[in-house]
Write a structure and sequence with these properties.
Structural class: alpha/beta
Radius of gyration: 31 Å
Number of strands: 31
Largest sheet: 7 strands, mixed
Oligomer: single chain
């Protein structure tokens, strides 16, 4: 385990600086909680105005404490934090929890105070948690640490929980206790001035008591490092997260189709997906999913069996499965015959299996065994509506015994009960994870199905987590020349620049990305000359740095078939540019060989200020912002990410052919996305790129980028746009 975090969660001694004799104060409750939970080491109260605190001799300064101190808890005013920390350094403290508020959350004065404190701690090798936090817990019987001022200390268990909100953390600890869910450790990180979520993930990766990790996040410090760590940790220990701020306004105004589509929450969604983090919408779902994954194996597929003693809840469960992309397949003939041997004639033997209200504990146990053995099922949901004549505890025990040796997850819905029920704790039940005697129960079928769907999605990620980023074969010399040219184009520029229309095809061509033959015309006669050289038909497009969407200003005319049509089209585009007050920014009219056939797609790149490059794929062409049928991923793209991007768009069926229309060349669009991913990695100056439309030709014919824009930013101005 990393020693720097070990002093925080496994300290041998603690000093509470600001401990108080008064209960119902932060200093009073913090010290009382440490005593009440029986911390296995000395706890030293430090207070310059008290000789005894809660029956324990107090010290005026940490320097007066007779023994060594691993962990210091600072419950002092913000302005005293740094002087106190200096005394901690002199004492040899290894880690400190800054409970106090009054730091960067209050503005520039607090930020300066926090910055100075962090710089000192780093110089002295002290790890800091907080400030503005609730504290830490460790339920290990060998530690029994409750360095918080929360009112509940949970029972030991396999869940470790990080909260960026102290208030929410206290509520969630209560929630865990109410559902009989044990915690391994709890950390409130507050402002994350030093110890971060990434640090704790690495600690919990090696913590044998942690089986599942829960996160409540409001922001990311180092998203790229988070992805790297989470992908590694999540292979063995599922990570479940709630991220607040989904609709936070104020993102950078975008100058491209891609940028305008990438606002809000898409970067976070892409990060979680690629890191294998199970994202949930609410804190309730956080623990609903944790209950399943701490006690049950991950499902190997999306096929769910439903067993019930009441038809209505079974139907609700089946409907919920359908809405969550889970399947409810028919049981095998053999399974139905085995069920028929002991269930009444009135029972329904399909899926859901309705045993009717008279079903007893023995029948539940037999039915669970039959359904878990069915090869058509990957998971089992058991619903029990308690009738007057059946003992609930007996049914729970029968289900637990029947599920003991199965390798498929079992969840239950004992209507109205939520958490781990006592009836599942069989006397001869196992103690090691996954403990099939610990079967989660959900109050309603829909909640159980949501948890199953999250777990099934995690199982799918585990099967592709090692998908590689493929090598793209390119002319390395041409690529180097292209990268250098891009850097030269912005080396002396303080503001982002759009590449000229003649330069864009050169950049794309260096990466093997096909574009139609095109050239720039500044007069109608030149446009006719170019069209003759290319061969009709041609397309005409306005070229201007100020135009994001050419069709919005009448700047695109397609399928021109002779000299007169080209001449009239040129004049029409110029006239519309004048009327739109764009005359000074128009560089000319692009004449391009017209590509008529093909499914219109869009591929784009934009930079999130926190998460870095985002790559977009969608269908819809000029209507992409209206239809919004797009998906985003963080760079770089693995083989699986490219595959999933293409199939996640709602209109992906178009690529397979729809209503007599030819399909699209799917391998070609996959290859294009990999080439774009390589381009993004080679050219860090790339700020935004739109390839729109991309014409996906029929199978075997490739794809062509019909229109493209590339925006670059120099290193000196880069941080303004990332």
């Amino acid at each position: 385990m990393p020693n720097s975090i070990d002093a925080l969660l496994n300290p041998r001694s603690i000093a509470v600086i600001g401990a108080s004799r008064k209960r119902r104060t932060v200093g009073g409750e913090m010290f009382a909680n440490l005593l009440r939970c029986g911390f296995n080491g000395p706890v030293y109260p430090v207070n310059p105005t008290a000789q005894v605190i809660q029956s324990v001799a107090a010290y005026a300064s940490i320097l007066d404490v007779p023994g060594s101190v691993d962990l210091a808890i600072l419950v002092v005013p913000a302005q005293l934090a740094l002087p106190t920390l200096k005394q901690c350094a002199e004492k040899g403290v290894k880690a400190a929890v800054i409970i106090s508020a009054g730091f960067k959350e209050i503005g520039s004065v607090g930020l300066a105070r926090e910055t100075e404190m962090v710089a000192f701690a780093k110089e002295k090798g002290i790890r800091l948690l907080g400030p503005n936090c609730l504290g830490v817990m460790n339920t290990d019987p060998e530690v029994r640490l409750n360095a918080t001022f929360a009112g509940t200390f949970p029972k030991p268990g396999g869940v470790s929980f990080l909260s960026q909100s102290g208030a929410l953390g206290a509520v969630v600890v209560d929630l865990a206790a109410g559902r009989n869910i044990g915690l391994s450790s709890f950390v409130s990180v507050g402002n994350k001035c030093d110890i971060s979520g990434n640090d704790l993930l690495e600690f919990w990766e090696h913590d044998p008591r942690t089986r599942v990790i829960l996160l409540y996040l409001e922001s990311f410090g180092n998203p790229r490092k988070f992805v790297h760590i989470a992908r590694r940790v999540g292979r063995d220990k599922p990570i479940i997260a709630v991220k607040s701020g989904r609709t936070l306004a104020g993102s950078r105004a975008a100058a491209s189709h891609t940028g305008s589509m990438a606002g809000g929450d898409v970067a976070v969604a892409a990060l979680f997906r690629q890191a294998g983090v199970i994202r949930v919408d609410t804190t309730e779902e956080l623990f609903d999913t944790a209950m399943l994954l701490t006690s049950q194996p991950v499902p190997q597929g999306r096929r769910v069996g439903i067993l019930t003693n009441a038809g209505g809840p079974g139907i609700l469960a089946a409907d919920a499965c359908e809405s969550r992309d889970l399947r409810v397949p028919a049981l095998t003939d053999q399974s139905q015959q085995e069920l028929d041997a002991f269930l009444p004639d009135e029972a329904s033997l399909g899926n859901p299996v309705d045993m009717i209200a008279s079903a007893n504990a023995e029948q539940y146990g037999k039915a669970v065994k039959v359904m878990l053995a069915d090869p058509n099922l990957d998971a089992l949901l058991v619903i029990f509506v308690p009738p007057l004549m059946i003992e609930t505890r007996d049914v729970a025990r029968a289900i637990a015994q029947a599920a003991m040796d199965a390798d498929k997850p079992v969840v239950t819905c004992f209507m109205g009960a939520h958490g781990f029920l006592d009836g599942f704790n069989t006397e001869d039940g196992c103690q090691e994870p996954p403990c099939k005697a610990q079967i989660p129960s959900y109050r309603f079928p829909e909640a159980a199905v949501r948890a199953l769907a999250r777990a099934a999605g995690h199982g799918e990620w585990l099967r592709v987590a090692d998908s590689p980023v493929p090598e793209v074969s390119l002319d390395d010399a041409l690529v180097r020349h292209t990268v250098e040219a891009c850097r030269d184009a912005v080396a002396t520029e303080d503001e982002p620049v759009w590449l000229d229309a003649s330069d864009v095809p050169r950049v794309l061509g260096a990466y093997g990305i096909d574009t139609p033959e095109s050239a720039l015309a500044t007069t109608a006669d030149k446009a006719v000359e170019l069209a003759r050289e290319m061969g009709y038909p041609v397309a005409l497009k306005v070229v201007s740095d100020r135009v994001t969407h050419k069709t919005d200003v009448g700047g695109v005319i397609l399928d021109r078939r002779d000299d007169d049509e080209v001449r009239r089209g040129f004049d029409e585009i110029v006239a519309k540019a004048w009327s739109a007050d764009l005359s000074e920014s128009v560089q000319g009219v692009q004449v391009q060989r017209f590509v008529k056939q093909g499914i219109e797609a869009v591929v784009g790149v934009t930079h999130d200020p926190v998460f870095g490059p985002l790559i977009m794929f969608g269908l819809g062409g000029a209507y992409v912002e209206l239809v919004r049928d797009v998906v985003f991923r963080l760079h770089p793209l693995s083989e699986h990410e490219v595959e999933s991007m293409i199939h996640e768009v709602r209109s992906a069926a178009l690529l397979r052919g729809y209503r007599g229309q030819p399909g699209g060349d799917e391998p070609a669009i996959k290859d294009l996305l990999h080439r774009v991913s390589r381009l993004v990695g080679d050219i860090p100056e790339l700020l935004e790129m739109d390839l729109n439309p991309v014409k996906i030709l029929p199978p075997g014919q490739g794809c062509v980028v019909v229109d493209a824009r590339i925006r670059l930013a120099s290193p000196s101005s880069w941080k303004k746009f990332r």
